[in-house]
Amino acid sequence: MKTRSVRRTRRTLQLAGAGAAALMALSACSSSSDTDKATDTSGKSDTPASPKLSGTVTVFAAASLKESFTTLGKEFEKQHPGTKVSFNFGGSDALAASITSGAPADVFAAASPKTMAIVTDKKDAVGAPATFVRNQLEIATVPGNPHKVASLKDLTKSGLKVVLCDKTVPCGAAAQKALDAGGLKLTPVSYEQDVKGALNKVQLKEADAAVVYKTDVKAAGGKVEGVEFPESAKAINDYPIALLKNAEHAETAKAFIALVQSAEGQQVLSKAGFLKP
C-alpha cells in the first residue's frame, strides 16, 4: 500500500510539472508573438511621409506685410532646409497688375479683396483666396506731434502737410472711406504708391502727418507717433492670400500659406498689430 501511494504521488507531481512547463511555453510563445506584433507595428506608418519641400517661393505681398512676412519667411526656411522665400512688397494694385501681366510669382497676399479680385477675375489664382488678417488705419505724425493732431478732422487744418496713399491702393481707398464716414474733405500734399511711401514722408519730416495702418505705425517705433481716430472702424481692410496658377513650386507655396494661417503665423501677425480675420 505504501509503495502504491508513493507511485501515485510521483505521477501527480510529474503531471503537474508537465502542465506548468506547457503553460510556460504557451506564455513564452504568446509573449514572443506580442513582441513581434509590436515590432511590426512600430516599423510601419499608417500615413505616408510628407515629401521634402524644396525650391524658392516667390511671394508678392502688400507693403504693410513687410516686417511680419519677412519674419515668417525666415522661420519657413528654418523649418524647411533647402527652401527659400523671396518677397516682392509693394502696393497691392501694382502687384496684382504685375501678376496678371505674367510676372513669375507663387503666392499673392493683398491688402484688400478688391485688389485680389484683379487676379482672381483673370483666373490667375488657384481656388478661393482666404482672409488671413485684417488691418485698421491710424494717423502717423512726426514724433512729439507738434501740430497737436488729435482727430481725423485735424488733418484738414490749413497749412498742415498731409500725405495719403493713392486712392487705387488699399490704404488710400480705406482713408477715403474713413474721410467719407466723417464727412470730411482733404487735399494732401502728395499721394503715395504704397503705405510705406506715405509713412516715409513723415519719417523724413517731409510731411506733418499721414494716414497709414496701425501696423506701420507700430513697425516705425519712435520714428513716428500714432493717433487713433474713430472713423477708422468704418474702413477696416481684410487681407486675402492665394496660391497662384503658375506657381513653380506649388507644394512649397502651399506650405508657406499654411504657415501664415497657422497659430504660429497668426501670433507673428498679431504681434505686428494686425487684427484677427
UniProtKB/TrEMBL annotation:
Q: Which UniProt keywords apply?
A: Metal-binding, Signal
Q: Which residues form the signal peptide?
A: 1-30
What Pfam families is this protein classified in? SBP_bac_11
Q: Where is this region: Disordered?
A: 31-52
Q: Which domain of life is it from?
A: Bacteria
- Show the InterPro entries listed in the entry: ModA, ModA/WtpA
Similarity field: Belongs to the bacterial solute-binding protein ModA family.
Provide the protein name.
Molybdate ABC transporter substrate-binding protein
Species this protein is from: Streptomyces albidocamelliae
What are the leading ranks of the lineage?
Answer: Bacteria, Bacillati, Actinomycetota, Actinomycetes, Kitasatosporales
Q: Which gene encodes it?
A: modA
